[in-house]
Write a structure and sequence with these properties.
The protein is α/β, with parallel strands linked by helices and 399 residues long. The chain has 14 helices and 12 strands. The strands form 3 sheets. It has a 7-stranded mixed beta sheet, sandwiched between helices. It has a 3-stranded antiparallel beta sheet with strand order 9-12-11. The longest helix is centred in the last third of the chain and has 21 residues. The mean pLDDT is 96. Bound molecules: pyridoxal-5'-phosphate. The site of pyridoxal-5'-phosphate (PLP) has 13 residues, from helix 5.
Amino acid sequence: MKTTAALDRISPSATLAMTTRVNELKAQGVDVIGLGAGEPDFDTPEYVQEAAIAAIRGGQTRYTNVDGTNALKEAIRAKFSRDNGLDYAINQISVNVGGKHTLFNALVATVQAGDEVIIPAPYWVSYPDIVQFAGGTPVFIAAGADQHYKIIPAQLDAAITPNTKWLILNSPSNPTGAAYSAAELKALGEVLERHPQVWIMADDMYEHIVYDGFEFATIAQVCPSLYERTLTVNGCSKAYSMTGWRIGFAGGAPWLIKAMAKLQSQSTSNPCSIAQAAAVAALNGDQSFLAGRNEAFRGRRDLVVSMLNQINGMTCPRPEGAFYVYPEFSGLIGKTTPKGQRIDTDEQMIGYFLDEAKVAAVHGAAFGLSPAMRISYATSEELLREACERIQTACAALR
Ligand SMILES: Cc1ncc(COP(=O)(O)O)c(C=O)c1O
């Protein structure tokens, strides 16, 4: 038996592969600092844990509606209205097994051979693979550190063709942390208004993780004329430290929500009933703990940005949100390690950091923009300081 052509078009997730590698090294007793994982190091808030335990004890352990309980859909409606000024009816809400599943359902339900999906680069690793799995063609727009990792309207206009089906807009971004202001979204929206065939997938997973008074905005809110053709995607994983619970959701056009439910009904069925009950508590509960967590993240961001910028040949922009930085290091390419290996790519650089500095990050090529790396700072300041010192020492040893 052979695997299918659709499967052969995709690769395993580079970020998950790095996490597996770090775990293997740790199991061998190697003192490696993992900065590769894309999840908060905080625990799920206690009030959410309690809601899950109550759900188990209360018998919420059976199948639910395929794409989410009414209680959770109501909590999501209230969240979209409260946080984003977006009104969705109950038949405009879909609940899925994590945000990745939300995106997968939407893309696989709508994209086929000949369709183009515009993906700004650097991008979250899964977008191109899901598009390719569906049979579509990813079209990349490069947005480097010089433009703060954000696309500009002229670039978007130039990338759109009659075959463009979707634009995926992720803000704040994984892997760069860059976030679009309301004005920047409005300017992109003006381009999209001229191209009615293009739908917009707003991936707002990091909405609640923003710093220095940055005001999060999402495109359907800023450009009401695009509401009908925007799928606004969000989830519980990052804001509520619920990566393992697997709850993602979206608001959008009723026909699309129905199509996603059809696909889900023949694959996963409903997301875990207990996780759904926990998500109701997370979304309806007191949100004030978010500010304290952001304060901790902001301190870590500032530490990492300043230590990486001390390295000759490396430039690390200071992002508006998420818990990643994306330093570029074109100034170090072509140098040689103490063992005599020439560093020509960011993948070789990440290999050098792992072997010699015992620090794990993910190479920029996995996110479509090189030479660079993604560092996740969702770990303690103590470990971050140690990791950045090791990277500084390793870079200083290059000749
Ligand atoms: C930008 C972005 N979108 C979606 C997801 C998917 O999140 P989940 O863990 O809920 O599937 C992630 C997770 O890393 C992400 O970074």
